[in-house]
Amino acid sequence: MYKTERYLCKLKRYVRNKARPEGSIAKGYLINECLTFCSIYRTGIETRFNREDRNDDGFSNKDELILDIFSKCVRPFGDGNYDTIPKKDFDMARWYVLNNCEEVEPFLREHKEELMKQVVVNIEEKHREQLPLWFKRKIMQLYNKEKSVSIIQLYPLAIGPDVRGRTYIGCTVNGVRYHIQRRDELRKSQNCGLVVEGYHENEVIYFYGIITDMIELEYLNGNPVLLFKCKWFDLPQEGTDAKR
């Protein structure tokens, strides 16, 4: 029923001469069929059948000398605001990139083992604070001895990102549009929420949060990494209230 009504509404838009509505509809229908045929079979021009998707995120970098973390498909909105990243956010973002890069995992284990041998108190905290500088020295030593493909890949990551970066109000990732909370406050459509699968006390759980900021770190050779800064929800336990 509704499909038929919508189609009748479309046919009514073809009417230009109210004295001859049937002829106007027939003429408009014929023109639409001809344009549709040309749009499908003509090449080299942009039509509604071959134009890029509205949420197209571009193409990933498949260079063999580029780490997978630098080759993600992300298309931020606009030029962003270029400024110095606050130290707290910068340290957290740099740690997150290192901790979530598959190629860095052997060095993560090696550094943690060294701290265990030194009988350091609060190993996890020291591991997070000291890893970036330790990793940089380690890769520099290996880079001076041998310039293998794996070390060349890790070199920009070890040097670290620029202390200046860009912040954006939105981006497209894997065909999905995301906005920061500030942009969506007065809008009916909300694209600032997200859910991420993670580990907590050796158990896989879902983390729910709201994107408060988008920060882009820029490494050597123009390798960017876009990160979401989120406000995570603390789901209520029995007899407690929800907190953020």
Explained architecture:
This protein has seven helices and eight strands. Residues 239-244 have low confidence and may be disordered. The protein is elongated, with a radius of gyration of 26 Å. The strands form two sheets. Strands 2, 3, 6, 7 and 8 form a five-stranded antiparallel sheet that branches. It has a three-stranded antiparallel sheet with strand order 1-4-5. The two termini are 46 Å apart. It has helices at 2-12, 21-41, 87-99, 105-117, 123-145, 149-159, 181-184, and strands at 74-76, 81-84, 164-168, 170-173, 176-179, 193-199, 204-219, 223-232. Helix 3 (87-99) packs across helix 5 (123-145) and helix 5 crosses helix 6 (149-159). Helices cover 39% and strands 22% of the residues. It is an alpha+beta fold.
What is the molecular shape?
A: elongated
Backbone structural class:
alpha+beta
* Main sheet: strands, sense, barrel: 5 strands, antiparallel
Write down the secondary-structure element order: HHEEHHHHEEEHEEE
Which blocks of ≥5 consecutive residues have pLDDT under 50?
239-244
Task: Describe the structure in brief.
It contains 7 helices and 8 strands; from the N terminus they run H-H-E-E-H-H-H-H-E-E-E-H-E-E-E.
Layout of secondary structure:
Blueprint: H1 2-12, H2 21-41, E1 74-76, E2 81-84, H3 87-99, H4 105-117, H5 123-145, H6 149-159, E3 164-168, E4 170-173, E5 176-179, H7 181-184, E6 193-199, E7 204-219, E8 223-232
Antiparallel strand pairs: 1-4, 2-3, 3-7, 4-5, 6-7, 7-8
